[in-house]
Specification:
The complex is a heterotrimer of chains A (296), B (532) and C (313). By secondary structure, chain A is mainly alpha-helical. In chain A, 71% of the residues lie in helices and 0% in strands. In chain A, α1 crosses α2, α3 runs antiparallel to α8 and α4 packs across α6. The two termini of chain A are 13 Å apart. The radius of gyration of chain B is 26 Å and the shape is globular. Chain B has a seven-stranded mixed beta sheet. In chain B, strands 14-18-13-17-15-16 form a six-stranded mixed beta sheet. Chain B has 15 helices and 21 strands. Chain B is α+β, with helices and mostly antiparallel strands and 532 residues long. Chain B is 31% helix and 18% strand. About 2% of the residues of chain B have low confidence. With 313 residues, chain C is mostly helical. In chain C, α8 packs across α10. The mean pLDDT of chain C is 77. The chains are: A mainly alpha (296), B alpha+beta (532), C mainly alpha (313). At the A-B interface, α9 of A face α7, α10, α12 and β16 of B.
Chain lengths: 296, 532, 313
Amino acid sequence: MSTALAASPIATSKSVSPTWRRFREAFRRHPTALIGGAIIVAMVAVAVFAPWLGTIDPQAVAPIKRLRPPSEQFWFGTDMLGRDVYSRVLYGARVSLVVGLAVAGFATIVGLAIGLVTGYVRAVDAVVMRVMDGLMSIPSVLLAIALMALTKASIGNVIVAITLAEVPRVVRLVRSLVLTLREQPYVEAGISAGTSLPLILIRHILPNIVAPLLVQGTYVCGSAMITEAILSFIGAGTPPNIPSWGNIMAEGRSLIQIAGYLILFPGIFLSLTVLAVNLLGDGMRDALDPRLARRM
Amino acid sequence: MKTRATLLRSTLVIGVLAATAVLSAPLALAQAQKTLKFIPQADLRILDPITTTAYITRNHGYMIYDTLFATDAKFQVQPQMVDKYELSGDRLTYTFTLRDGLKFHDGQPVRSADCIASIERWAKRDALGQKLAEVTDSWKAVNDKTFTLKLKRPFPLALEALAKPSSNVPFIMPERIAKTDASTNITEPIGSGPFKFVKEEWVPGSKVVYVKNTDYVPRKEPPSWAAGGKVAKVDRVEWIYIPDSATAAAALNAGEVDWWEQMPPDLIPVLAKNKDIKVENIDPLGSMGMIRFNFMYPPFNNAKMRQAVLYAIDQNDYVIGIAGDKKNGHTCYSYFTCGTPLSSEVGAEPMKGKRDFDKAKQLIKEAGYNNEKIVIISATDQPIVHSQTLLTADTLKKLGLNVEIQAGDWGTLITRRTSKEPVDKGGWSIFHTWLVGPDLTNPAVNFAIRGSGQKGWFGWADDAKIEELRDAWFATTDAAASKKAADAVQARAFEFVPYVPTAQFILPTAYRTTLSGVIIAPITLLWNVEKR
Amino acid sequence: MVAYVVRRLFSTIVVMAVVAFVVFSLLYLTPGDPAAVIAGDIATDEDIRRIHARLGLDEPFLVQFGRWLWALLHGDLGTSIFTNLPVTTLIGQRVEPTIALTVCTLVVAIAVAVPLGVIAAAKAGTWIDRAVMAFSVLGFSVPVFVVAYGLILTLSVELDWLPVQGYRNFRDGVWQWFRHLILPSIALGTVYVALIARMTRASMLDVLAQDYIRTAAAKGLARDQVLIGHALKNAAIPVMTIIGMGIALLISGAIVTETVFALPGVGRLTVDAILRRDYPVIQGVILMFSAVYVLVNLAVDLSYMFFDPRIRY
């Protein structure tokens, strides 16, 4: 987008341990990042161990018990069909986390692949970057809704839709990193020594991309979880009988004035998780290179 | 330098404040006219009440069009645009004479030719109209105010057809517009009704504006459903579409709108606290929910499977799931709207009383169910459809059936239900919907009960016997025979189960106490309403 | 510089062409069918097939694309399938609320975020800094509609200070127009404030560490003047970049905000059109948004010249 930003030099060593050392130091300086990490671990635990945490079948309807406020029996109350909100929120963690992590994973891998190629192969670069620019200029939520409207609602389709919307940003990051790294003396040395392209990529470029990519990955994860919630809110998200934080809120939104807990609890869980992910990302980014803050 | 900057800045600030003050002087002077702000049940997108049965378009129709006859609160047919009418001795010829002073919004008088063209177009689409067209020999305009309808054989429902209260309503349009092909949407909303449509102010998805038709000549009788005098007592009506119910409730609470057509019963407590708002059930007939099967493929192509569902589902669950409590909904074990003359509980034993899961399981076994997948398509943006889906899925799962819910939005659902493919190729086994009371009162208007197979409504229910019984009902000539024939139709319906009625419910309406004169009717009518 | 602008405009056109093709082909692949939606509840298969044919939905892909592109170049975005109104009219009717919302949000967000970022940078390491950063991270962790509902419940319903929903035209009274936009702007702006504040702080920290800042302070310039006169101007570039990139976020968020606050804007128009599969409207609106995004970013790039005299294109 702008050539005016000077590329800031990235640590050029190809050894790995200083990075981990830097992370540890950063976490000590940024306790918030540690908190973030702890929250994420807790959420994953909740999602995995949901059946053993005092939950009942999240899809069991019991109309006679509808819209009960939080109580001893129903810790988070019941929804409009008598389903237990506590159980739904805990099981909902599964969907929201899976969507977040899957999108982060796929977007990172696909973005990495495309970014590496465009960073290196000039001919492909021009074409692919125009396509990426095109995709990026369509607001991501709109793109995701449009994609969802084409297919039937399923977690898989939501993941694909949001991934497609997030890939261009990852590609952009990888590409700019590759372009910078390519100019490094040790890379030129490697090329003149006859090292094959794949080896150069693996031995020199990749190690220096992994960290920023991880950081970007965390932001993508947070963004994906919020996008899933928005998609559910609009009605183009995951199938409604399977609870996710987004669609629990979507179903309860019209009742906010008499049953605010329907939005409060999933809202808190979602916000907390996204917050944790963002804090973690911030900590990692600061550990890596504070000047990266400009680029991200 | 600092002082100059400061001076400049202060001047700017003062200037902006002054300009703001001036610009804020509201145009209150022009607002001496009364505007009724109404939240409609849906977004008005299609302006043609003949090509679509959508209720929102029907309501729009009632604003700007008028009808020859109308049904009143006692289910009697009353003349509306017609002044006098007579039936010949052999019961084959009707002669109608229009009232004086009827004019379209473009100034043209209403003539016989307009009425005839409108009725003929309506009859091409509407089920009851098609029946009328079958027995019609000819329509003739005697002069501009008088015209005749000649039948091939006596048809006692002729006037009832012309007085049909709900979709499709035989609204009268100018001849040139009525000549439009019956599958093409008209674009000019010109009628002869009590309000005029203001096209320049129409923002689809957000706002529809009507103004009072000062040339309208209302009848002298008091209003009763769509019959009687239609006196517009406000100057301007704005339909403001607010899709989010929480926002709508808040808007009504704050007085930003005057009337909310259909509110979800759950939100009643939110509005009940406000003494400036009245929550009422002005709809005496309510609506009925239903489970519709796909007759083309297993497992529901087998009558025993469908009957099993009758024994398993509990209408009480649906009442609560849809209406929230027993005040706004109740059970109705009938294929005809409870509270109307032809409704009864003939044949309804399987649905009443304690649920019999054993019998249901036995029927399933007899039907030879082989774990075929049952796909229920649902729409998450339609809470009534979706609640029913979840309840039915729960029951069927308890019966050990292989159930999968595939949900999208309403647009997706009405696309998918047209599919005649098997379930693994994008087809469906069950969908839920609801129809308003007036559309289910008798075998003529109830299209869901029919067994017309591939030519019929989605689900393609196939049963020659019920079609015979339906024809037999059409042939009856007095009330007693009509009731008996209707009972026979219903009894057969409970055997072949074209759909399962789930509950009868009323969506309350809420309006501010500044309004008075709201008409109690199963359709939303905006005349006679005054605003203080 | 003119050469640069021309080059950028050319690449913009290429990008738009890509967007047009992507948008058009996506919708063509859809299994959803507007004909069924139009036909209504009690339609038969023949009705649906007839509507299909009449709307030309059966013709081959390239023919449809070609026709559409040709019309597009003549300024004709097609006609909405449902309302039979030209897409340009539909958009025209609803553009004002969206622009008003976006502009208000931008102004509010920048007015709040930049000072916050500057203060946080000036007091780096203190509790003020941490508070600002915490608030900003919170800002983009909470979904827009949760913030929106929270605001409505407290400020409109409980306290009755501000209207719940709706939009008042600018020419009908500026004060009312503004009142109705306060809550939506705050809700929508939260994410934006978070982003801009962070970026401002990071960028300011960077600049403040530079030598010329120390020189200015040593020369005896007041703190304010150093901060604003020198540092902020130099820190502005990355901030402008973020503002430009954030437009996409703004548009996404506007959709939700318009739904919750019942603002009759283009965002809602798009969502309705997508869910209803009103193809011409979907294509027209997405194209429009993309054009806005690209043009805004071009403007942002050109603005760099203002902030950094070293940059000449």
